Amino acid sequence: MKVLRYCKKCKIYTLKLRCPKCGASTVSPHPPKFSIEDKYARYRRKEKFGNLS
Ligand SMILES: [Zn+2]
Predict the structure, then answer these.
(1) Which long-range contacts (CB under 8 A, 24 or more apart) does 26-32 make?
(2) If you compute the radius of gyration of the chain from its CA atoms, what whole number of angstroms results?
(3) Domain boundaries, the chain
(4) What is the distance in A from the centroid of ligand 1 to the CA of 8?
(5) 2: pLDDT confidence band, cut at 50, 70 and 90?
(6) Of 5, 10, 33, 39, which one's alpha carbon is 20 to 30 angstroms from that of 49?
(7) Which residues surround ligand 1, an ion (CB under 5 A)?
(8) Taking the model in full, what pTM does it have?
């Protein structure tokens, strides 16, 4: 699976971890799904603690 990455400086998309133009480290333009699930998991934990206290 190819992961598209983005250079903020050059405003171009690349598949490499570093921008081929300026050499800066690229970022993924969209947050990965598992981080969103992690947020929901944290909310669930909070709800559980809320019920206990
Ligand atoms: Zn760049």
Answers:
(1) 28/3, 28/4, 29/4, 29/5
(2) 18
(3) 5-52
(4) 7
(5) confident
(6) 33
(7) 7, 9-10, 19, 21-22, 24
(8) 0.52
- What CATH fold (topology level) applies to the domain 5-52? Rubrerythrin, domain 2 (2.20.28)
User: Is there a contact between 5 and 15 (Cβ–Cβ < 8 Å)?
Assistant: yes
Tell me the CA distances in angstroms from 11 to 3, 16, 27, 30, 39, one per residue in order.
16, 14, 11, 14, 29
Each residue of 10-42: pLDDT tens digit?
999 999 999 999 999 999 887 656 555 666 667
Token digits for 23?
């050499």
Amino acid making up residue 30: H
31 CA distance to ligand 1 centroid (A)?
20
Write out the two tokens for 34: 């598992």
Per the structure block, which two tokens stand in for 32?
């990965």
